Amino acid sequence: MDRFLIIKMLSDETRFNIFSKLLDYDRLCVSELERLLGIKQANTSKHLKKMKEQNIIESEREGNIVYYNIMKSFLIEHEDLIKYLLL
Questions:
Q1: Alpha-carbon span 44 to 23, nearest angstrom
Q2: What's the domain count of the chain?
Q3: Which of 17, 23, 27, 86 has its CA at a distance of 20 to 30 angstroms from the CA of residue 35?
Q4: Taking every pair of C-alpha atoms in the chain, what is the biggest distance, in angstroms?
Q5: What residues does 61 pair with on adjacent strands?
Q6: CB 59 within 8 A of CB 11
Q7: Residue 57 belongs to a domain with what CATH number?
Q8: 69 CB contacts (<8 Å, ≥6 apart)?
Q9: What helix, strand, coil percent values describe the chain, rounded to 5?
């Protein structure tokens, strides 16, 4: 993924906050993100879907709960950009 597209994707405040929380906690479900960020379920799911479509995050179902985490390959490939964005 092009660095410009990553910056564009994470320039949305909600997506950036989701990304930051996933970095902090490694994996979270929608309800945990809602609680941590104070945003509604529909809004959270919409942003997670966009990030998943761009191969920034992945999901894993455990029973009725879907957990999201940042893809390891994304973290490795864009390590410098992520460090820059978090400064």
A1: 16
A2: 1
A3: 86
A4: 37
A5: 66
A6: no
A7: 1.10.10.10
A8: 22, 26, 27, 28, 57, 58, 59, 60
A9: 65, 15, 20
According to the model, what pLDDT value does residue 2 have? 81
Owning domain of residue 77: 3-86
User: How big is the chain, counted in residues?
Assistant: 87
State both tokens at 4: 């410009």
Can you tell me the distance from the alpha carbon of 15 to that of 18, in angstroms, rounded to the nearest whole number? Answer: 5
pTM: 0.92
Provide long-range contacts, Cβ within 8 A and 24+ apart, for 28-32.
28/67, 28/68, 28/69, 29/65, 29/66, 29/67, 29/68, 30/66, 30/68
pLDDT per residue as tens digits for the range 1-43 = 788 889 999 999 999 999 999 999 999 999 999 999 999 999 9
Q: Amino acid letter at 7?
A: I
